[in-house]
Amino acid sequence: MSFIYKVFHDVAFFSWDTSLAIANLVLPSRAEGKVTPEGHPGFGGKWPEFVPRKEGDSRCSCPALNAMANHGILPHDGKNISFKDMNRLIRTTYNFSPSFCYFVPNFAAKFLKRDYNKDTFNLDELDLHNLGIEHDASLCREDAHFCPDQSVIATDMIKELLASASGKDKDGNPLLTVKDLSRFSAKRRVDSSEKNPEYKLDFQHKMFGSSNCSTMLTIFGGRVKDLETILLEERLPENWESRVRKPFGLTLAHFNLTTVMWVELGINEKKYIAERKAAEEAAASNEAEAEAEADAAAESSVHKSDSPTN
Length: 310
Ligand code: HEM
Hints:
- The protein has helices at 3-26, 63-70, 83-94, 98-111, 155-163, 178-195, 203-218, 224-233, 252-265, 269-306; strands at 81-82, 120-121, 167-168, 174-175.
- It is mainly α.
- It is elongated, with a radius of gyration of 24 Å.
- It starts with a helix and ends with a helix.
- Bound molecules: protoporphyrin IX containing FE.
- The site of protoporphyrin IX containing FE (HEM) has 26 residues, from helix 2, helix 3, helix 4 and helix 7.
């Protein structure tokens, strides 16, 4: 791609995305229950049957794409998916903007060195470590160094993430917040950097990390109950629809400015290390106190049994 074409393409793309973001601000949102367009899988909250992955099916590190394959929205075997189909299907399933749905599959085609217009890919091919989108210290997968098959769901890690949710909706149900994602990301980055001898996370992959996990707050509204289903089972909850009701879907501009940027800016690894140290010191001092109390109790019972009145 020539330099001039690239500049022209990027300017056109960002103008398109910005105009959709502006249109979203002035046009009414879709009614609740009408987010998934008529005639598409999921219309009226009815998702095609969920069939767990079978031996030989291709799956990847992205819970949202795996869920689409598990419901047969993408081919169930996760193979020979055209980039153009993925564009159309992530749009109708999750209500991302046409600009976003053009941008990400194009980016994937580029890092896989394929032709966006003609070629296909298998889901597992998306897991090109540190060269594509997949990276260390993510919130739903162990690092590739420990778990080369990035389709393996990190169940305990996801449960820990969801248990850290500090928000509540109006009915008192738990909600994941921007602060929760920043805190958990800081923990993952510190833990991975200490344990993984191959740990690497450059600026671009930090931004991918914050961007991927921010979909938990936008598309899934931070709702822990829905996130349990999508992240732990890679299934779309019954009667679910995207929490983004904007008529042109979630644009890159809106997503980055309202969520991704705040998650990334809130990640404070030094603060996490200081909190962890304080928690360890408090635990050690509680342990020492408990030991001292136990010793004192044992000593006093010895004195009692030595007493002449016994
Ligand atoms: C073309 C479309 C997409 C591609 C190529 C893609 C690719 C990826 C990849 C490679 C990862 C793993 C990154 C890592 O190492 O942590 C990932 C994670 C993730 N993606 Fe996607 N994805 C796409 C669409 C979506 C959509 C539409 C959603 C939401 C509705 C989504 C939600 C997520 C979530 C929640 C994670 C997990 C983040 C984490 O573990 O920290 N993705 N995606």
